[in-house]
From TrEMBL:
This is C2H2-type domain-containing protein. Residues 91-114 form the C2H2-type domain. It comes from Serpula lacrymans var. lacrymans (strain S7.9) (Dry rot fungus). It comes from the Eukaryota.
Length: 266
């Protein structure tokens, strides 16, 4: 409906779509619709979803003198004739503020007042017709920008950032006997891990030549050293370090010690 010839037959259809505020007064529903056609469909939807009470369908619109009906279709017909027909249809001519409850009166007004618009080809949105609620698609869409002439797109060449090592932190000293046992266990685990690892040889990566003309200028700034890995740094060791083997043992230390000694004897 974006382009059409204006005639007497389409005056009513245009009037039903002219933008206007239409409040639904069905029960507690206070939804604001934007045109005559949408309020029409909205009220009929209320009729379809209204629950029947004692086999009767109740009209919830205000000032209704015949609110009980035998079926949904009878209730919808009642709303069309008694309520929706009273909603005025605005004149679709732009700048005209006349409204009519009868479609015949609307056509007579349009023929008498806006006869110069009849037979005219209208393209929406138009300067002759009021804005309507029906969506429309633009006739032309902007073309995308042309592709670049060169075959190779510009490349980004960024030097990897060298992250300094965190400052040295003294480690917690362990008793010599226990440290020697843990060292032997960790050495055995490393040997097992080396045997299980699969050695796969990969080919060298391709060296892609870079054209200096296509490299985009890039500004690289080093991060201050005080902000380097502050959150992921491990906790500091115990200070001062333990000076004796008289350390408080946990509840399961004896069981763990016997298990480790059994593994070392094997």
């Amino acid at each position: 409906m974006s382009t059409f010839q204006l005639s007497e037959d389409c005056i009513t259809d245009l009037a039903e779509l002219v933008l206007q505020m239409a409040l639904c007064e069905w029960g507690d529903c206070k939804i604001m619709l934007n045109c005559w056609l949408n309020i029409h469909k909205h009220i009929l939807e209320h009729c379809s979803t209204a629950a029947a009470k004692d086999g009767k369908h109740h009209c919830c619109l205000p000032k209704c003198k015949q609110s009980l009906h035998s079926s949904t279709s009878v209730l919808q017909l009642h709303c069309k004739l008694s309520h929706i027909s009273r909603i005025p249809l605005p004149c679709p001519a732009k700048g005209c503020h006349e409204a009519f409850t009868c479609a015949t009166a609307l056509k007579s007004h349009f023929v008498a007042t806006h006869a110069d618009l009849l037979g005219k080809w209208i393209t929406l949105p138009s300067n002759d017709i009021s804005p309507i609620a029906a969506p429309f698609l633009p006739h032309t869409r902007p073309s995308p920008p042309p592709l670049p002439d060169h075959a190779i797109l510009p490349l980004w060449k960024i030097t990897p950032l060298v992250i300094p090592a965190p400052p040295y932190q003294p480690r917690k000293e362990q008793p010599r006997g226990l440290a020697r046992r843990w060292h032997r266990l960790s050495a055995e685990d490393e040997d097992d891990d080396d045997e299980d690892e699969a050695r796969i040889a990969f080919e060298d990566l391709l060296q892609v030549p870079l054209n200096p003309d296509h490299i985009v200028n890039t500004v690289i700034r080093s991060k201050p050293p005080n902000l380097d890995h502050q959150l992921s740094r491990p906790q500091t060791g115990v200070a001062p370090a333990l000076q004796s083997d008289d350390v408080l043992r946990s509840m399961l230390f004896e069981a763990l010690s016997k298990r480790i000694e059994a593994r070392l004897e094997i």
